[in-house]
Structure formats: structure tokens, C-alpha cells
Amino acid sequence: MSKLWRMAAIGIVAGSLLAAGGLPALASTRAAAVSITIAATSKLEVTGDAVVLFRAANSAYTTAKISGKISGAPSGSAVKLYAQPFPYRKPARSVASAPAGSQYSFTVKPAIATRYYAVLNTSPAVTSARTTVYLSSGTRVTVKRDCVSGPVCRPQYRLYVFLPAALIKPYVSRHWFTYLGVSRSATSNNPPRPKWLDLDKRATVSKPRRIAADEYERTIGMTFWVGNDAARWNFLVCAQDSEARDGIGLPGRHSCGIQRVSAGVAYLG
């Protein structure tokens, strides 16, 4: 017989009849499961992926947040964040740490696509799943030549592209696609914004010119008819992603190169 059964039997012989619910409860010997989750979020998210921009004019787009929830961790535990940059061959290294409460959060600013995971220093240690933050170029646009009158407009724009110095050389060799949308009105001086942009195969794109270690420039030129109408136009340029090859942009394809895109699209690659 087990010890518990012998104690119950003794109680019955002595005449102390106890209902089953009156027996003392035994403390569980199984410790609460320790767990930690992880997620990456950013100002710019595309199809569920977090992406940051290098040297963006708005600094909110240059960082991402790595966060998660913790359960079952003993008091005094700590959580460490590990980072493994593309091409993910070198061991991950610890980049931040914090006390382990019920949740945690770290701000990161990767210089290339980077995988992250979190580790609780419990015994044994508990490791989260992995999540990736991707990197795309920052840009700045200036007007080189505006269109002030018709009937044919030939505007030109300078696009300045920012990337970490080590990544610029493979990036500048990519083919650029230009999209253009034009809205005209013969009765109003304020035409509506174009809703759609079409691939402009007549657009001109200059050769890249290196300006600084982490910056280069290209000039985009377009030609379109407006006649005597008032006109409003918009354009976008993109290069197709090759993240698997160089760690820049997002995995897969994101509409860059197709015939038509929405004027409000947040990301092309």
C-alpha cells in the first residue's frame, strides 16, 4: 500500500470517518511551466514583416520593437535579447538585458536583416522562438527641374539613397522601375491626386553617383502630356528585393515591376 492509503485506513479504524472532500490536499510537485514569447513590430510593416529604414527622415521608421510575454519565471530572473545579423552564419550575441517581469520590450536598430530571440536565465534556461527585423534604404527627394507649363511636362528629380556603407555596392546595381500617375483637369486648378500609378517605361534613370560612404544619388526624368490643362502627378521608384542574397529589403516580391500599383502603396520591392 502507498503511504497515503495507509493513513486513510488508520483513520477509518480509529472511527474518524472522513468524506473524500475532507482529506487534506497534497501540494503539487510539478513546477509552473516557464515560457517566453517574442514578436517584432515597426512603424512600417509589410505582409506581417517588420522593416526599418536606414537614415529615414522620420526617425520613427529607423527602429523596431522586440517584445513578448513571460510566465512562470522565478523572482529575480532576467531576460536577455540575442541578435544574429544576415547571413546568419555567426553565432548570435547578446545585445540587451532586463529584469524578467510579466512582459519585456527592447528597441532595436539593425544595420541589416537581423534575427532576434530572447533567453530567460532560469535553470534550465528558456529560449523564445526567433523573429526577424528587415532593413530597407532610406531616401530623400529633391526637384531638379519642375514642370511649370504645358503642353509637355518633363520634370526631373534627384533621389538620394541611404544604406550602410558595406551594403551600397551590391545595391546600386539593381534595376530601378519607375511608376507615374497623372491627373488632369480643364476646369479646375486643383485636380485630384492620381489613384493609380503605371509602370513608365519611357522614364530615364541616371547612373548612380556615390556621394558619401552611405549615400548615393540618381536622377529620374519623366515626360507626359498635359496640354492646357491643370495637372497633378505622382511618381514612385523601386528596385526588386533580393533579401536572400544580400540581406536588404524583404523576402519574396512586393509588387515592384508589375504594370500598375496603388498611389497609396506603402512599400514596393
How would you describe this protein?
It is elongated and about 75 Å long. It contains three helices and 21 strands. The termini are far apart. The chain has 269 residues and is mainly beta. Residues 1-30 have low confidence and may be disordered. The chain folds into two domains: 35-135, Immunoglobulin-like; 146-262, no CATH class.
Summarize the structure.
9% of the residues lie in helices and 44% in strands. The protein has three helices and 21 strands.
Largest sheet composition: 11 strands, mixed
Shape label: elongated
Given the structure, what is the number of helices?
3
Unreliable spans: 1-30
Query: What is the strand tally?
Result: 21
Share in β-strands = 35-45%
Spatial gap, N to C terminus: 71 Å
Structural class: mainly beta
- What is the multimeric organization of the chains shown? single chain
SSE series: HEEEEEEEEEEEEEHEEEEEEEHE
Calculate the mean pLDDT score and round it.
Answer: 88
Radius of gyration: 30 Å
Helix percent reads under 10%
Tell me the domain tally.
Answer: 2
Helices and strands, with pairings:
Elements: H1 3-13, E1 35-36, E2 39-42, E3 44-46, E4 49-54, E5 64-71, E6 78-85, E7 93-99, E8 103-108, E9 114-120, E10 126-127, E11 131-145, E12 152-153, E13 156-162, H2 165-172, E14 176-185, E15 196-199, E16 204-205, E17 209-212, E18 215-221, E19 224-225, E20 230-239, H3 243-246, E21 260-262
Parallel strand pairs: 4-11
Antiparallel strand pairs: 1-5, 2-5, 3-4, 5-8, 6-7, 6-9, 9-10, 9-11, 11-13, 12-19, 13-18, 14-15, 14-20, 15-21, 16-18, 17-18
